[in-house]
Amino acid sequence: MCLSTVYRNSQSEENVCAKYVAKIDVDGNKLTFTDVLGEVTQVEGRLVSADLTAGVVVFAAA
Questions:
Q1: Reduced to 3 states, what is the DSSP secondary structure of residue 24?
Q2: pLDDT at 20
Q3: CA distances, 57 to each of 7, 12, 21 (Å)
Q4: What's this model's pTM, rounded to 2 decimal places?
Q5: Are 24 and 50 in contact (CB under 8 A)?
Q6: Percent of the chain with pLDDT over 90
Q7: Virtual CA dihedral for 31, 32, 34, 39, nearest 10 degrees?
Q8: Is the distance from CB of 10 to CB of 56 less than 8 angstroms?
Q9: What is the pLDDT of residue 21?
């Protein structure tokens, strides 16, 4: 199972938005991250990159 950490704007510890993310939904500029326990985090922005092997997702905040 690949779980990811989601970062806002750049990959640094102070920019962590969500951890242990198992699912990402995109609806226009609304991003929904669901972690392995089912907790949902919603943000506005656009997906910049997703390295699922490394478990890193970066989005640009709107």
A1: strand
A2: 97
A3: 6, 11, 9
A4: 0.92
A5: yes
A6: 95
A7: 130
A8: no
A9: 98
